[in-house]
Amino acid sequence: MRPINFISRDGLKVYGYITIPNNIKKGQRVPLIVNPHGGPYGVRDYWGFNPETQLFASRGYATLQVNYRGSGGYGKEFFLKGNKQIGRKMLNDLEDAVAYAKTLDFIDGNKTAIYGASYGGLATLGSLVKTPDLYTCGIDYVGVSNLFTFFESFPEYWKPYMPQFNEQWYNTEDENDQKIMTEVSPALHVDKITKPLFVIQGANDPRVNIDESDQVVKSMRARNIEVPYMVKYDEGHGFSHEENRVALYKAMLGFFAQHLK
């Protein structure tokens, strides 16, 4: 796991990490998995043991983790630069990170997947809509797909945080923000997704309602596009039962092997 940094297209210094397989031979290039963290605000990836990235490395993939604008740990100015940038400059940071990774002599620039959970799932879907040619495939794990239905489904205990959501995400009562929400909600632009997609959802998720995943899968299947969809009915916002996690990673690794190997 190596620390990285690069300058974004608008001049912001962005940090992250890239985990690579052991013993890459000289001249060997490996596929890349871009793994945006959840949150998104105030959350960040850290250097250290990560079972997921190590699993991917053991199978021959490099994993790119980007602390895009709005992530925590880089000061107030960097944090605030993420406000109202979901689906916009936050995705630009991921694209710029991929461009940086492709300059590394061990990355296969023609095989790039994107995989994320929660907000990372939204970033995955948004990236497949915004820059479909950049990615080979994507995995959306308990991800938001429609900002309108996501906000409507907020549990009662989230209501006190609405002023913060309105400032950081978007304000559903603001006409300009509504237009942006329409532009950056992947479920409203599923016709632009042209690359293979695997969707994963817990049926009892109180944070990201299963309707968020259903919308995407139904729309794509209505276009006769095959979308593998794993739903576990004893799970919520992320799988916690061992047997479900084993099934999840087996399916995930199979999906990556099918499209990246």
UniProtKB/TrEMBL annotation:
Listed InterPro entries: AB_hydrolase_fold, Peptidase_S9_cat
Pfam family, one: Peptidase_S9
A single BP term in Gene Ontology: proteolysis
Keyword Amino-acid biosynthesis: no
Residues in Peptidase S9 prolyl oligopeptidase catalytic domain copies: 47-261
GO terms, molecular function: serine-type endopeptidase activity
Record's keyword annotation contains Iron: no
Keywords from the UniProt entry: Hydrolase
SUPFAM superfamilies for the chain: alpha/beta-Hydrolases
Protein's name according to its UniProt entry: Prolyl oligopeptidase family protein
Source organism (scientific name): Olleya namhaensis
Upper lineage: Bacteria, Pseudomonadati, Bacteroidota, Flavobacteriia, Flavobacteriales
